């Protein structure tokens, strides 16, 4: 019988972390689940194979054994057989050495598992990030079956304790050097057996459902901000607690403003006359306020002017960042005859002291060539 590598079954690298392995398993399990492939024996066999692979790789001790010995680690008489069995397995070794120190005692394992967490991505504008908003999200989620109230049993009946594992959800078997703990083959880890399954959910206790939620997005959120909504993930199996829903926020680029932490930055073009003579300009901000900014005489392109307290709100805090304007002096491209005449008159009165940077630059060039 050909034994397919567990990592290959789950379509992950051998160096994959627990999160990647879990994500790949969930994707494949949904693809090959018998309920989605009725009558397809190949899909059913694939589902069982990937479930066995995940059952091994999700457990650090089992995964370590598999990485070292492969499938032989789980066969009677496999690698390491004949060596002295001082403990029942790696978990027993850990509990024997560290159990008392960590609080002692073997914990009850098995039973219905908590529902999976879900992720939902929301894209908002910079204005929404500034003011905050309430976003309506619609998600497809595995929710508790209303007919059986999540128990998986037909109304009027109840589940009974699994006789194979005595309700623990796991069984142990001696396999070579190791004593391996696996999900009970009878109850599949639930610890209970349903003799008369609910017709609404086929004994799963959960059904696919579309759920609409109102999510409050606070003012001051940024790209990548995560909002956790407790208990709005997938329902747990047969009455177990639900997982959580995580909202990941993405902020669209703004046509004018850029964000730098709690500061807002913008490139602000001004006329060359305003730059030369100074003055005031009015800048509309994200909150609708029109900010008056004083322009000092002789300001140059690239100079930054800061207006305190006019930036983004501090998330879950008080105050705001600053508004930073980077000045860009604009040279006129369309001049009337009168404007050209006035500029010509100005040029005739120039002494070189009006623009010391440009005068100094050309003087340095002349010095390089000995002029």
Automatic annotation (TrEMBL):
One matching Pfam family is DnaJ
Mark the CXXCXGXG motif repeats by their residue spans.
145-152, 162-169, 184-191, 198-205
Q: Which gene encodes it?
A: dnaJ
Chain residues that bind Zn(2+) 2: 162, 165, 184, 187
User: Which organism does this record belong to?
Assistant: Sphingomonas chungangi
UniProt domain CR-type: residue ranges: 132-210
What NCBIfam families has UniProt attached to this entry?
Answer: DnaJ_bact (TIGR02349), PRK10767.1 (NF008035)
Which cofactors, by name? Answer: Zn(2+)
Instruction: Please report the name of this protein according to its UniProt entry.
Output: Chaperone protein DnaJ
């Amino acid at each position: 019988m050909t034994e397919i590598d567990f990592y290959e079954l789950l379509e992950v690298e051998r160096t994959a972390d627990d999160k990647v392995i879990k994500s790949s398993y969930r994707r494949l399990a949904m693809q090959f689940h018998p309920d989605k492939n009725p009558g397809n024996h190949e899909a059913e066999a694939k589902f069982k194979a990937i479930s066995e692979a995940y059952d091994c790789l999700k457990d650090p001790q089992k995964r370590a054994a598999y990485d070292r010995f492969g499938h032989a680690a789980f066969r009677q008489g496999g690698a390491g057989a004949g060596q002295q069995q001082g403990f029942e397995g790696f978990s027993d070794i850990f509990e024997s050495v560290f159990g008392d120190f960590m609080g002692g005692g073997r914990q009850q394992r098995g039973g219905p598992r908590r529902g999976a967490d879900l992720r939902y991505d929301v894209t908002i504008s910079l204005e929404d990030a500034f003011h905050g908003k309430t976003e309506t999200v619609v998600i497809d989620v595995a929710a508790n079956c209303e007919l059986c109230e999540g128990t998986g049993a037909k109304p009027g009946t109840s589940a009974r304790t699994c006789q194979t594992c005595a309700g623990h959800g796991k069984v142990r078997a001696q396999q070579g050097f190791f004593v391996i703990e696996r999900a009970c083959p009878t109850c599949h880890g639930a610890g209970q057996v349903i003799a008369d399954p609910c017709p609404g959910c086929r004994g799963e206790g959960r059904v696919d459902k579309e759920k609409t939620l109102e999510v409050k997005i606070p003012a001051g959120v940024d790209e990548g901000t995560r909002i956790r909504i407790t208990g709005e993930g997938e329902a747990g199996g047969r009455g177990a607690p639900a997982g959580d829903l995580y909202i990941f926020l993405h902020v669209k680029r703004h046509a004018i403003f850029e964000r730098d932490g709690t500061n807002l930055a913008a490139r602000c073009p001004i006329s060359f006359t305003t730059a030369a003579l100074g003055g005031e300009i009015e800048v509309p901000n994200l909150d609708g306020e029109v900010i008056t900014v004083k322009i000092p005489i002789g300001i140059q392109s690239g100079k930054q002017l800061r207006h305190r307290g006019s930036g983004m709100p501090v998330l879950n805090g008080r105050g705001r960042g600053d508004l930073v304007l980077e000045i860009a002096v604009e040279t006129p491209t369309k001049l009337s005859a009168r404007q050209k005449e006035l500029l010509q008159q100005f040029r005739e009165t120039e002494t070189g002291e009006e623009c010391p940077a440009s005068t100094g630059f050309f003087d340095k060039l002349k010095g390089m060539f000995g002029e």
